[in-house]
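Listing 4. Sequential folding, example run.
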Amino acid sequence: MQSQMKRLSSKHRAVGVTPDQYPVVNKYLLQAIKENLGDKATPEVVAAWQAVLDLMAQTFIKREKELYAQLGEDKGFVPFSVAKKEQIASGPTYTFTLSRQDGKKVWPHIAGQYITIRIEKDGVLHNGHYVPVEPSDGNTYVITCRQGHDDQNTIISEEIIRNRAVGSTVSVSAPAGSFGLVKDAKHHLFISGGIGITFLMGMINELNKQGQSSSVTVVQCAQTEDRAAFADKLRNTLPKGQYLLLTKEQQISKNHLQDKFGPTTYKAVSMKIDPATYTPVSNNKTEYITLLFSFRSGPTP
């Protein structure tokens, strides 16, 4: 459980959770637990749950104090400006280049980490997590989002695409997250679906920056070619035969992947699959989806 709590602490820091908020959270968590347990919520059981929640809160607070200390003066959200806005694919899909309004350097990030963008809409604060698609240059973050995409970032993406022109302000907190490249992998296989390519591009571009494009294979799935963000860049960057674009007429299958694996291949998958509507080549949807998501790992043992 320590590893899960470590990842959660990183996200808590990203959205600005503070120690004084934990008693409030625990109060309502305990209330929900009591309601769920019903008659089984004896005083002894409730006391045990209270002790567990208190222990978890103290663990989070201790870890997050360390994370905040690493940030120096910028412990929360900082005003950034939209320096550039460009449509790169149908959907529509846009890239945004963000820079600090105070002219300072941006926080460094590791390929695969995410930044958190906060906007206020109708009096409510909304947070969205975006993975920078370009390696750190010290001056800007480049993120990509698609309008109308149904995920946790929908409100943020819709707002910045529709209403945030160049020069507009968004609030950004420091990069977070521990998902990234495996250093000792001899080859890297990236599989994406739809806008999921944006979560992988930072790692792909980092490997290219390091002169390791020959060790990269990308399988990109999109409804149509015009909706495939970064397709042209990937074709031009990767060696022949190491980039495969599949549309809804060419669904991914084992045949596309069976020669892409080795004992030191790093696999990363970023796609959203709905078992109720997606029809893979395999008749066993659950097995097929499990197969895809099991690739999100380090080198094969």
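-- end of first protein; second protein begins --
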Amino acid sequence: MAAEMSGDGNENDETIAYSGSATRTVVDCLESFHVLAVDDCLIDRKVIERLLRTDSVQVTAVESATRALEVLGVNEGKAASHNEEFKFSMIITDYCMPGMTGYDLLKKLKEIKGLKDIPVVIMSSENVPHRVQ
């Protein structure tokens, strides 16, 4: 599939033309993108939300990995019936959280058939390298 970008230089007005299909703007693509943001720090959650919503991305933010699993419909390690309202394109999670860490969340998600293909980004706002390694 060949893709060609065009536009007047404004990031929000770029157009992607796919050979053999309709032309869609980047904004149209991002509006259907839904991110689950997981962070125990309210300020960090708000920063993620604001950055992504600036680009028209839909964001659901939760305060813990346990809450993320609930939103994803996971009950005792198994995915419940798939809820289309909460179909996520990507999960962004903090690494250092009380209880279940972002890495623990990633491991749990990769064990669940309906969730293992969702891309996961693990990040940390901590500036203590030995805690993040």
